[in-house]
Design a protein that fits this description.
The protein has two domains: about 5-180, NAD(P)-binding Rossmann-like Domain (Rossmann fold, 3-Layer(aba) Sandwich), CATH 3.40.50; about 190-225 and about 265-305, N-(1-d-carboxylethyl)-l-norvaline Dehydrogenase, domain 2 (Orthogonal Bundle), CATH 1.10.1040.10. It has an eight-stranded mixed beta sheet with strand order 3-2-1-4-5-6-7-8, with helices on both faces. The protein contains 13 helices and eight strands. It is of the alpha/beta class. The structure holds nicotinamide-adenine-dinucleotide (NAD).
Length: about 300
């Protein structure tokens, strides 16, 4: 039985607890503010029936919830675990403090992973005796609906720690993607940033409306992207595969890249984009739409799980 410690019981710590417990692992859940842990269990108890109804839970909700155990201290949380996932605040001093304590108490050979969205592991692990076992395992929110996890080592992280994290993530039914060295934004947000930068530029230049821009991804690019990446997409779009595609269209893309110069996201542009969104979705309806999004994601995941590979 794999045992993991989830450190921090906020939004992401709760979500990771679902991921690990759903996959049959025992979870020790700790938070600096003890009242957060029962609140997290209540939140998880509310989510599990939805996942069962969507066909995304193999075991009964009660059985999954019973695998999540509150821990009274970091030392108690990491006792006997195979892996640690840290989910404290997105601030370097707090991460330094948490990792120092985790490194003091976790047995040698146990990977210490941070969920950080954007802080490199080198910023909070440099001085630790066990820095070779520390890395980032960055989830996409919520990880129980979006399986990708970006694994990013610090310069001193040893290869076994990356390999072990990939194993744990695979066992947890997540999909690991290794980033070979530290880079700002990891990879997913760099890709999203490239797309957003061009989307903002096209709208700013009056070439397309915000509604039609979203339609271009939703009804165009995005349909394939839910089951294949951009490299496989172009590989299938020319008779001779990727190299043939690049021979045919490389000149076009080279011209486009020259035109894609940096553009500030100034107040006027943001105001225009925000006004378009608020016309579509008043802010007081955002929660309703988020619930709708999660239901659509669950249905998509269930569909994907039912397909042959
Ligand atoms: N929210 C997201 O969409 C998202 C996505 C991917 C990664 N992450 C990362 O996950 C981590 C947690 O984010 P979150 O959204 O769950 O935040 P959150 O605020 O919901 O949870 C943070 C938890 O840390 C605890 N905490 C507060 N002060 C602390 C301290 N000084 N020391 C230790 N713990 C303390 C809080 O009680 C809280 O439970 C962050 O590093 C964040 O960047 C977040």
């Amino acid at each position: 039985m794999t045992k993991v410690a989830v450190i921090g019981a906020g939004l992401i710590g709760r979500a990771w607890s679902i991921v690990f417990a759903r996959a049959g692992m025992e979870v020790a859940l700790w938070d600096k503010f003890p009242e957060t842990v029962p609140a997290a269990r209540d939140y998880i108890a509310d989510r599990l029936p939805e996942l069962r109804d969507a066909g995304l839970l193999a075991d009964a909700p009660d059985a999954v919830l019973a695998r999540i155990h509150p821990a009274a201290s970091i030392a108690e949380a990491v006792a006997g675990v195979d892996y640690v996932q840290e989910n404290g605040p997105e601030r370097i001093p707090e991460k330094q403090e948490l990792f120092a304590e985790l490194d003091r108490h976790a047995a040698p050979g146990v990977v210490l992973a941070s969920s950080t969205s954007g802080i490199p592991a080198s910023a909070f692990t440099e001085g630790l005796a066990g820095r070779a076992r520390c890395l980032v395992a960055h989830p996409v929110n919520p990880p129980y609906l979006i399986p990708l996890v970006e694994i990013c080592p610090a310069p001193w992280t040893e290869a076994w720690a990356v390999a072990r994290t990939r194993e744990i993530m695979t066992e947890a039914r997540q999909v690991p993607a290794t980033i070979n060295r530290e880079v700002q934004g990891f990879v997913l947000n760099r890709l999203q940033g490239a797309l957003l930068a061009e989307a903002f530029r096209l709208i700013d230049d009056g070439l397309i409306s915000p509604e039609d821009l979203d339609a271009t991804v939703k009804h165009g690019l995005g349909l394939r992207w839910s089951f294949m990446g951009p490299l496989e997409t172009i590989d299938l779009n020319a008779p001779g595969g990727l190299a043939d595609y690049c021979a045919r269209y490389g000149g076009l893309y080279a011209d486009l890249q020259k035109q894609m110069t940096p553009r500030a996201w100034d107040a006027e542009l943001i105001g225009k984009l925000d006004a378009a969104r608020r016309a579509e979705l008043p802010l007081n309806m955002q929660g309703v739409r988020q619930e709708w999004r999660d239901r659509r994601l669950m249905a998509l995941l269930a569909h994907k799980a039912a397909q042959p590979d």
